[in-house]
Design a protein that fits this description.
Elements: H1 26-49, E1 56-63, H2 66-69, E2 81-88
Antiparallel strand pairs: 1-2
Amino acid sequence: MQYGREFSFESDESVDRAGDGSAPSPLRYFLSGIAFCLQVWYAKGAAIVGCQIDDLRIEVRTFMDMRGEHRVGPVPPHPQWIVVEADVA
């Protein structure tokens, strides 16, 4: 519960990962959470210094070698990298 109410989230995996693609994957929520957090901090920082933000775009990319998730090969079972790019105007 937050803000006096409950929110619900649906999550699924793609068909090739034994889901049916009916909702965002857990990893998609994780990456979106990074972007949402950064958006808030850009807004707070701008407010503190009196800077107006007219446009803010954040792109988050990652790569995960699926062999690691399935323990096939010597790769880690988590994303190998995450890149965040922000464009502020």
